[in-house]
From TrEMBL:
Coiled coil regions, renumbered to chain: none
Organism annotation: Pyramidobacter piscolens W5455
EC number from the UniProt entry: 3.1.2.26
Keyword annotations of the record: Hydrolase, Transferase
One matching Pfam family: CoA_transf_3
Superkingdom classification of source: Bacteria
The name this protein goes by in its record: CoA-transferase family III protein
Length: 418
């Protein structure tokens, strides 16, 4: 680690990195949580008396008479919570904020009205020329291009899905599109944040020069559209909703088992198709790949439709566990659709240590939540503490990092700035 004084324990590949983040709800704060899971010290700035909106997101769990958002308990762990009225018109706030940035590597935010708050990239880079600044918004910051009024629009996960074109493709063709859950665009955007921030951070190590990273939710989602745009620009075709089934090959759908469970089963390409047909005990000469699964015309042909009926009947004759076992033996991709309950009870999840316990700071008791991903052999991540109470670490941060004394902290509290 560097010669800076850190509050959190040392662990993981990102030990020695300090992140200052400000904002709420899901994309940017979740990206910060992933960094915290792997050893970065994350100071999450929240408004005094208000906090991150994620704290108010249902569903809630009540333990020992105390209520906490389950999303907050899962996704705010490992962070330090600092309450600060982040408006730089207050000189005391500017002193605190700039002081933290001098001791930080990254500032991440998904707030609005930065100019009204007196936060300007050029000033932050003067305070710390090595700083990486990451902005997260629905439609991007105008400094990186775009129609200014569109950049200024408010956004949510659903809006990013809609504007990117992703939402248009979700669901069955004879129904309105279905929003991809839960908060797909936010979590996709979080990983765009992680890549952009870490790429900029690596560049700082090489050049000593910080920079600004602009993550727009709609662009993060658009990157996941595979050949959709190229299909239009190169072939002049607008891709339409096709539901769960693939129109160009089979089997590739969700099927119902004998015991009433849903099973996802797919076979793409002649090799996997052959293994499926043999694994299911069908006649490969009759249901050959060219006639049944080699393209849209083959799938829609009488023999292709016959195969689809056979697959539906075959799945309905077996339990979900039997389907999974037969496809496992045949090396064909297949999985039952897990609920939270069945995933939690699944031996594969358990054997990979995907369920961990840690003490949630709000309800002050151990909870069980999803663990660390990805796995790392030499510098694994960990959870050293659960999600914090609002402002739980404010005093410690001010004393340890900025050297404030009790009197100065008391004055800030009386003014409602922390």
């Amino acid at each position: 680690m560097s010669d800076r004084t850190f509050i959190i324990p040392e662990f993981g590949p990102l030990a020695g990195m300090r992140i200052i983040d400000s904002g709420s709800l899901i994309a940017m704060p979740f990206a910060a949580t992933v960094l915290a899971d792997f050893g970065a010290e994350v100071i999450h700035i929240e408004r005094p008396g208000v906090g991150d909106t994620l704290r108010l997101m249902a569903p809630f769990a009540t333990v020992n008479g105390k209520k906490v958002s389950t999303a907050w308990a899962q996704d705010a762990r490992n962070k330090l919570s600092m309450t600060l009225e982040l408006n730089l018109k207050h000189e005391e706030v500017k002193e605190i904020f700039y002081g933290l940035l001098r001791e930080a590597d990254v500032f991440m935010e998904n707030m609005v009205w930065l100019e009204k708050l007196g936060i300007y990239d050029e000033e932050l880079l003067k305070v710390n020329p090595r700083l990486v600044i990451v902005h997260v918004s629905g439609l991007g910051h105008k400094e990186f291009g775009g129609v200014p009024s569109v950049c200024n629009r408010a956004s949510y996960d659903m809006i990013g899905q809609a504007f990117s074109g992703w939402l248009y493709l979700q669901g069955d063709p004879d129904r309105d599109p279905a929003v991809s859950k839960p908060y797909t665009n936010d979590f996709v955007s979080a990983y765009a944040v992680l890549f952009g921030m870490l790429a900029a951070y690596v560049n700082v190590q090489k050049t000593g020069k910080g920079q600004v990273v602009d993550v727009a939710q709609f662009e993060a989602m658009a990157q996941y559209m595979c050949g959709t745009y190229a299909t239009y620009t190169m072939a002049g075709k607008i891709t339409e909703r096709s539901g769960n089934a693939s129109p160009a090959f089979q089997p590739y759908n969700i099927f119902k088992s004998k015991d009433g469970f849903l099973v996802a089963l797919g076979a793409f390409g002649p090799g996997v198709y052959k293994r499926f047909i043999q694994g299911a005990g069908f006649d490969l000469d009759y249901f050959n790949y060219n006639d049944c699964s080699s393209g849209i015309e083959a799938v829609a042909s009488p023999k292709g439709r016959e195969l689809n009926r056979k697959v539906i009947e075959w799945c309905a004759s077996l339990t979900a566990a039997e389907i999974e076992r037969k496809m496992e033996e045949a090396r064909v991709p297949c999985a039952m659709l897990n609920t939270a309950k069945s995933a939690f009870e699944n031996e594969h999840f358990k054997s990979r240590n995907d369920w961990i316990t840690y003490e949630d700071q709000t309800v002050e008791t151990e909870i069980t939540a999803f663990g660390i991903a990805p796995k790392m052999s030499e510098t694994p991540g960990k959870v050293w503490r659960g999600a914090p109470k609002l402002g739980q670490d404010t005093e410690n941060i001010l004393k340890t990092i900025l050297g404030y004394d009790d009197a100065k902290i008391s004055s800030l509290r009386e003014k409602g700035l922390i």
